[in-house]
Amino acid sequence: MELIESHLCFGGEQRRYKHGSAVLGCEMTVSVFLPPDFGSHTPVLYWLSGLTCTDENFVQKAGAQRLAAELGLAIVAPDTSPRGEAVADDEGYDLGKGAGFYVNATQAPWASHYRMDDYIVKELPPLIEALGLGSRRGISGHSMGGHGALVLALRNRDFYGSVSAFSPISNPVNCPWGKKAFGAYLGDNPADWESYDASLLLADAKAPWPVRVDVGLKDNFLEEQLRVEALEAAAAQSGSELTVHRQSGYDHSYFFVASFMEAHLRFHAAQLK
Ligand SMILES: N[C@@H](CCC(=O)N[C@@H](CS)C(=O)NCC(=O)O)C(=O)O
C-alpha cells in the first residue's frame, strides 16, 4: 500500500493509502486511523459507509478519532465500490460506483469488478494487519454499510469479534434499494439474494456476539428501506442478543452517526479487549 496522506490527530495518525486490488481489478483508496502507540495489541474496527460515500466521509464527518485514540482502537474506512474508467456504473446513486453493496456480484456487467465482499473480508485485512496491527476485528457501518457490517459478520462469525450498525438496510430482499441492487448484482432469482440478507441470516442461527443497532426516528428511509423491525423479529426467532436504539428526532445523516459514535466505539472496544 502506498501512503498518500498522513495527519497527526489526537496523538494518533489519520492516514490514507492507495493500493492495487487484485480482487476488484482496480486501484483503491482506504483511510486508516492509527491510535498512539499502536501495535499487535491494537484491535481494528472496519467501518463501511453508505450510498454515495468514499473512504473520506467517515473520516471527515463521524468524529471518531478522539475516542479511538483514547481507547486504542484502529479504524479502517474502505471505499464503497470499485473505481476507475474500466468499472461499470449506473446513472442512479444507488447502483454502481459508490454503491457496491458489499456483495460479490455474479451478473454482467458487474461481476468483473464488484466483489466488495471478498475485498473487505479477504483482501484488505492482511494488508491492514501488515501495518503492525492485531487480528482482533470489529465491523460497523452506516446504511448500505450497516447492512454490509451485519451481513459480513454473520457470514464470517469467527473472523469478527464485534458488530454494530447505524441505520442499516436490515432486510434488503424486501426493500427497493435491496431489490434494485441485488437484482443487478446477483440476478433475477430472489433465492440467490438470501445469503446476503441480514434478517434472514440472523433468523437462521443465533449470533455469537451481542449486536447493537441505532436508528433515527426522523430518518426518511426508516420504514421503506431500513426495516429494522425485520431484524428484531429475526433476532427473536434465533434467540440472538440484538439491541435496537431508536433515537428520537435524528435523521439519516452523519450528524446522527457522529452523535452516537461514542457509544458504538465503546461497545466495540469492550468486546475486542
Ligand atoms: N440521495 C441521497 C441519499 C444518499 C445518502 O443519504 N447517503 C448516505 C448514506 S446512505 C450518506 O452517508 N451520504 C454521504 C454523507 O452524508 O456524507 C444523497 O445523494 O445524498
From TrEMBL:
Q: What's its catalytic activity?
A: S-formylglutathione + H2O = formate + glutathione + H(+)
Look up the domain of life of the source.
Bacteria
The GO cellular component terms are: cytosol
Q: Where is the active site?
A: S143, D219, H252
A single BP term in Gene Ontology: formaldehyde catabolic process
Keywords, sorted A to Z = Hydrolase, Serine esterase
Q: Name one GO molecular function term.
A: carboxylic ester hydrolase activity
- The record's top EC class is hydrolase
| Biological function | Serine hydrolase involved in the detoxification of formaldehyde.
Q: Hey, which family's this protein in?
A: Belongs to the esterase D family.
Q: Output the PANTHER family linked to this UniProt entry.
A: S-FORMYLGLUTATHIONE HYDROLASE (PTHR10061), S-FORMYLGLUTATHIONE HYDROLASE YEIG (PTHR10061:SF1)
What is this protein called in UniProt? S-formylglutathione hydrolase
What is the native source organism of this protein?
Gallaecimonas pentaromativorans
Q: What is the lineage of its organism?
A: Bacteria, Pseudomonadati, Pseudomonadota, Gammaproteobacteria, Enterobacterales
